[in-house]
Amino acid sequence: MSSTKPVEQLERVVIRFAGDSGDGMQLTGDRFTSETAVFGNDLATLPDFPAEIRAPAGSLPGVSGFQLHFADHDILTPGDQPSVLVAMNPAALKVNIGDLVKGGTVIVNTDAFNDRNLQKAGYESNPLEDGSLEGFHVHPVALSSMTVEALKEVEGITSREAERSKNFFALGLMSWLYHRPMEGTLAFIESKFAQRPEIAEANTRAFKAGWNYGETSEDFAVSYEIAPAQLAPGTYRQVSGNTALTYGLVAASRLSGLPLFLGAYPITPASDVLEQLAQMKHFGVRTFQAEDEIAASGAALGAAFGGALGVTTSAGPGVVLKSETVGLAVTLELPLLIVDVQRAGPSTGMPTKPEQADLLMVLFGRNSESPVPVVAASTPAGCFHAAIEAARIAIKYRTPVFLLSDAYLANGSEPWLIPDVGELADISTEFATEPNDGDAFLPYRRDPETLARPWAIPGTPGLEHRIGGLEKADETGNVSYDPENHDLMTRLRAAKVAGIAADIPELEVDDPDGADTLVLGWGSTYGAIGAAARRVRAGGRTVATAHLRYLNPFPRNTGEVVRSYEKVLIPEMNLGQLRMLIRAQFLVDAAGYNKVRGRPFRAAELEDAITALVDS
Amino acid sequence: MSSTKPVEQLERVVIRFAGDSGDGMQLTGDRFTSETAVFGNDLATLPDFPAEIRAPAGSLPGVSGFQLHFADHDILTPGDQPSVLVAMNPAALKVNIGDLVKGGTVIVNTDAFNDRNLQKAGYESNPLEDGSLEGFHVHPVALSSMTVEALKEVEGITSREAERSKNFFALGLMSWLYHRPMEGTLAFIESKFAQRPEIAEANTRAFKAGWNYGETSEDFAVSYEIAPAQLAPGTYRQVSGNTALTYGLVAASRLSGLPLFLGAYPITPASDVLEQLAQMKHFGVRTFQAEDEIAASGAALGAAFGGALGVTTSAGPGVVLKSETVGLAVTLELPLLIVDVQRAGPSTGMPTKPEQADLLMVLFGRNSESPVPVVAASTPAGCFHAAIEAARIAIKYRTPVFLLSDAYLANGSEPWLIPDVGELADISTEFATEPNDGDAFLPYRRDPETLARPWAIPGTPGLEHRIGGLEKADETGNVSYDPENHDLMTRLRAAKVAGIAADIPELEVDDPDGADTLVLGWGSTYGAIGAAARRVRAGGRTVATAHLRYLNPFPRNTGEVVRSYEKVLIPEMNLGQLRMLIRAQFLVDAAGYNKVRGRPFRAAELEDAITALVDS
Amino acid sequence: MTADGNGNLVQLTAKDFKSDQEVRWCPGCGDYAILNVIQGFMPELGLTRERIVFVSGIGCAARFPYYMQTYGMHSIHGRAPAIATGLAVSRPDLSVWVVTGDGDALSIGGNHLIHALRRNVNLKILLFNNEIYGLTKGQYSPTSRIGKVTKSTPMGSLDYPFNPLSVAIGAEASFVARAIDTDKKGLTEVLGAAARHRGSAFVEILQNCNIYNDGAFDFVREDKANRIYLAHGERIRFGAESEKGVQQYPDGSLRVVDVDEAGENSLLVHDTAHAQASLAFALSRITFETHGAVPLGVFRALERPVYDDLMSEQLDRARDERGEGDLAALLHSGDTWTVG
Amino acid sequence: MTADGNGNLVQLTAKDFKSDQEVRWCPGCGDYAILNVIQGFMPELGLTRERIVFVSGIGCAARFPYYMQTYGMHSIHGRAPAIATGLAVSRPDLSVWVVTGDGDALSIGGNHLIHALRRNVNLKILLFNNEIYGLTKGQYSPTSRIGKVTKSTPMGSLDYPFNPLSVAIGAEASFVARAIDTDKKGLTEVLGAAARHRGSAFVEILQNCNIYNDGAFDFVREDKANRIYLAHGERIRFGAESEKGVQQYPDGSLRVVDVDEAGENSLLVHDTAHAQASLAFALSRITFETHGAVPLGVFRALERPVYDDLMSEQLDRARDERGEGDLAALLHSGDTWTVG
Ligand SMILES: Cc1ncc(C[n+]2csc(CCOP(=O)(O)OP(=O)(O)O)c2C)c(N)n1
Ligand SMILES: Cc1ncc(C[n+]2csc(CCOP(=O)(O)OP(=O)(O)O)c2C)c(N)n1
Ligand code: SF4
Ligand code: SF4
Ligand SMILES: [Mg+2]
Ligand SMILES: [Mg+2]
Questions:
Q1: What is the value of ipTM here, to two decimals?
Q2: What are the start-end ranges of the E strands in A88-131?
Q3: Which of A434, B145, C46, C73 has the fewest beta carbons under 10 Å from its own?
């Protein structure tokens, strides 16, 4: 179907879908995103579900949102503020209206604006009537009743079930409004509800009814076109951080030739890595849902001892429980990949909200000197390569490695140029199979270059040996209380990790105009920093940016880079963790921009912060 | 008894007793120390037991040592190198002889130098005969056989039991040699072996026989006198760090008026705090040996919720398991004292050996921004006040507090001027008993000065409230996912801890001559740094010293202090943890002197390090 | 009737135990039913609200304390029994309740649970068993059945499940019972028995998670004929017409028989206070899968010294024997010397 | 006879299983006896040394792996069952043994133990029970008896102890047995049965700590008349002259009777493989304190699907159904689009 109404061209749009937890907003957002991706826009998404439990229908804490930014050019963030809000009920309106840009568009489900819902949302009068939405462009749509009406001929569904299809009505309307292709969603409905054809039928009808409503209703005078973005050639898909991470782990298993063993305990927002890997049994992936995080990491370490790619995934409150195991892995010098999908804390904190405040924990959260390399992903799709890279380091250097993601990367998504599997680098290693000291096997005799020790797995004849958590003598690995040996081993472990700096790329600086000010970031602030820098530059100022993908060790030129700028700004969703490290290591008076709000930075606030520093 | 032989005057002696784990060397050292303390010398001790299990008799890993430094002036360390070595068997000789000063004295139990023992110790020939001890002053003493001989009239003991008294023979001999008073040891034997009078009799006889042997044997031509030191007036006792810590906790309970609840799980070298507190039931102390460290800290936190002084004690590998609970305490804002008696790591490491490498763990080892004050003891006796001070902060600011000790402080001992109980400051607090907002109670409404929240304990009518690990709204404490609130709460928690700086003493600097170089220390390096500084100054150079007793927050003048010196040296038994913090916070190019050998620094090595820096 | 802080007698009602927080479980969740029953039961405790504390871990069930107008702590996953132990042991004047889920109690918190039970700390532990991880949206739990397809077991669970009551009995629990979320009468009775029991009381409550594991207990939640209500001292009978009964084999295991055929006198007599836990254990092995019915009520209620009491007694005894601790004397213990 | 890496048959002996590390337990420790028996037993496994792995936690007992010329890991306190689970599950070709102490297994490690048992992971778990914390020098453990005076309980322990076998049975263990450190024959038999059992095998070994808890088991270690050796399918008898036997009360509990008086036929017949664990549980309640004797040998050995096998089967089935995983196809799954 194509529209007959006037069409306006736009460069970019930020839409937020918002409704009750039960209203299917995440699904709606996902579908709209898929349509948009297939259409060829660049995009970035930000799902936002408040608490883990479905709160009572209509309540403020029960509101679930999904924001999507799409454009005809490459974009970096899901957008600071929506320009369009779809609000399925009063609570959704109340929670989200404050974020809308001035003059933005609101599409509301008028059917939900009854007294009970208004009251639950804490409205004293109906905002659709009391003038409080003046200044916005409001489209009142009777979404529920029109959906029920549209489905009255579908057999085998109750009117409650019919009403539940209203999100597809909304999706249809929005698809019309922005000229999204319908085929993908229609096919999706078919396959998703294959078991319940009557529901498939209902959703299909609702979807089409929504589209038709846009086309016919006088309330919608124009529709919009956002031309496809100029992306590099290749095959794309949309991918969220957790999916990319899952794929990266499976790829690492393939590229290393090591079977993947995941030990995990469910926790938001890391659970779906476990859930997705559980679907990968045909890749030889073993997923073990352990009794707790300690056992999860222990089992992964046990599997690593046996020659597997041992992985354990969690979020901060679970990672903290793995510390003792990671300490053991440090001294055993076995590969182990620990994934921390960071969320807001401390303690249980705000489980679904992002934060990047576990950096110091993963670096230092173990007794004694216990160095561990740290890799951090910066974008949802980037989780794929970050996972492979973390695995590479773990395997090559026989060391636990932390991989940091966060709730924003985990759930956010973006188009991904699917890599050519054949071009991914081999990360395989060799197990020890022969004695390395005449007839004897010295499990702690190191490779002189990497300082890695041999990995001799059970089942290898003649290399029987014992390892443990007590300090070990150099080379033999026997228990040793010798003071000088302990000092030596402590330094060897540190040197091994520090030496990885030679094996990772230099820190890249984006500095087109020779700026005085460097903005240094890490993790999921990548997009926001990039977008902010664009704005700053567009405003006529100069600024350089660099983004750390390795937090331990730092790329070898990091000191040089930070010292070569007059001013350094480190924006972080914490109180200054990377900043502390940079200051300590390089004695540079780096400033911070720190907000701990459980949500990603907005480009605008970073623009302001950078501008202020540049001008200072 | 007093000696009839010529007497030489000495200023100081360092003795090391060494023997098999079963030889009672710790007891011997303890008794000699007590005699020395009562005599009035200043002293410092360094027990050194290698592994936790009694290795087979006669083996090198089974050697247990006890070093004592005593002098007629105030001293700061247990001595770099012993001048006298008492070696009960070949293994003890082998392990320790390398530490003895050139020309030092060796007293050996010749009876133990049989082929079997020599072989177990890895001696190819008898060192008493092959000339390898040339350069030392060797006293061969048939300790075992003379002891058996001396006890042959004691009834009811086997000759094996008789032989076991040889450590008392050695103690008697050493007591004679250094003019130690005998009464204390005689009384000690009576009471310690009250249940087994025949053993008491045997030990008494052995002790006296040793003394007499010194007096009569021609091998000992002179004895030595070390005049009492000039100590401040008052009543003294000898105290080890763990005992002082125990007393400090009991005192904190008394001074706060809060019953002490200890949740602990045994671990070297912290176990005896649990064991000693278990003896304090008449002080109303409840000790709970939990199923693990997690439960130990959990129970302490539960008790704190109920209004107790909740304490949990452990060493690094156990503290790491408490992190999640500490994180909860941070967000609950309840007092909790976590004691970390540090030992060498990582992982299980070297359980009986000291290290100070848990600093970054206690600061940062939790998910998200989770600030906790840290207090560190510097001397064995200092553990007393450190414990009270840590409790004071916890109670006043409603926060978990870490108290750091280490294996050296824990087991080392020194004379202690017993404080006047009446002069210890009150650290009591007030529980909330009334609503604080009209009729309502706001559990997170803070004291504007301390930022502490009210502590309303169960049982208080009308103040029923719920707290939890999810982020809480300011003031009400209700669950909140509000972004700005989270930022606010994160900053309030940080500000509360940072604000403690106003409530602790400034960092004191010892700089008699206006030096360029500052040596900044923390923890148990206090003695070694002080002794080294004395030597450096005695060598005609100038150096300043300062010692941090608070690691978070730092004393408010710390920046000023470190910035006012040209060079700053931070010696640590880790790879530079405080150094990192100082550099980051104050951008001072502090250098480190770092050794991770599982044993305290020697004054001489620090002297060299300081001298090199001063001269650089 | 309850004495308030001023000694006045007051009659509390369920309403007095409702906090001002909006209840945030999914509509239809079995937790609502339990909350109502417990709020209704609370006045029976005869305690003022400030003397009651609810401690929980993390999970849907663990939100419970927020809804009770008592003292409460929503702590960390699995650790509630440990935290509650510290509270109960140091504050014997309080009535301490732990609310936990099958994941919270038996997965991450299994160790704390069994240790609290063996110690017989004065805690009432209510395990809301929905055989699923609700809060994290539907992974299998240690009580989920073999073959269960969940988010984390797309091909079915491989883990042989725990039987919560068997675990508790194996861990020396002195009080063990079971009830159903929607069975107001049965649940109230069990709560009463648990409250009266001095020491640890462990109560499994079969709870429907209508979102992620709907109908898990329908065979007993919906079909009352499959409920075996246990009563101390009585022969064990059940069924719509009480036509079925439980008999013991010579090998110690139990079977379900037809009462008419087997004869009333051949039926097992329930004894909650037997010195040996074997009977309670055997009863815990009666399940829908093995026997087609589910025992409810109190399986075991054995008086045993209570940890908190024992500890208080030691403190008293220490004071009797050694006198109230004297700090100055403590500091001066051992060898001392005085410098002029 | 064992096939070595080249397929040659070799006869290994105890000596082949001794590592070059000096054994460092206290002289007289019961651990020496166990080490000897296990080294002597190893050749019976019929496996080459590289196929065998010993995993331990921390404690005196946990030093065990250092002394075995096999693969080994001395890990962290309490976590050996979890670590071994990862190893066993990902390497079904190995024979994985866990050595643990009463503190390691039942205090800090209690949760991992019970979960490994319920899952029926193919692990042989040997718990050296000395009713004390040896390595940390003499604090009471979860198996120490009430009233026990130790370093951390100067006035006597208050904690009701675990019965390790009851815990294991309550946790759905498929194989449960008990032996004595110095009873070479009994211990060897139990090890053999454990090794033959596919799945988790839990063996409690009564071990004397002559330094911190000397004589804890003298009543059965020294006095053979107090040993009840269990044998599948046989009536349970014991005593110097086999004059005593075990009978079942109608209430499911067990009592010791005089065989002559009670009659041989009234004695309980041991059944290690009963579908219901009730009998094994009841046997676990026979203790020296309650019955004056201690059962030894295999309490329970029930065949049940093994976790590792089940997991391998799912992997195979997934490959059968979906084909060997194709990475490129995975990356291209879902909606894709191509930019020219
Ligand atoms: C240390 C830690 N690990 C994991 C989680 C995530 N988590 C929260 S609740 C839960 C399980 C909940 O299941 P259950 O105890 O059965 O409670 P229910 O939600 O079913 O009532 C998990 C895994 C967490 N909060 N903390
Ligand atoms: C996390 C941690 N907590 C505590 C310890 C100290 N620790 C080592 S072994 C042990 C208990 C040993 O008892 P058990 O398991 O019975 O072994 P045994 O020494 O008696 O053989 C303890 C508490 C530790 N090593 N690690
Ligand atoms: S997820 Fe299940 S257990 Fe949790 S609130 Fe919803 S229905 Fe209840
Ligand atoms: S302490 Fe006890 S268990 Fe440990 S080695 Fe010595 S005797 Fe054996
Ligand atoms: Mg559940
Ligand atoms: Mg033990």
A1: 0.97
A2: 105-109
A3: A434
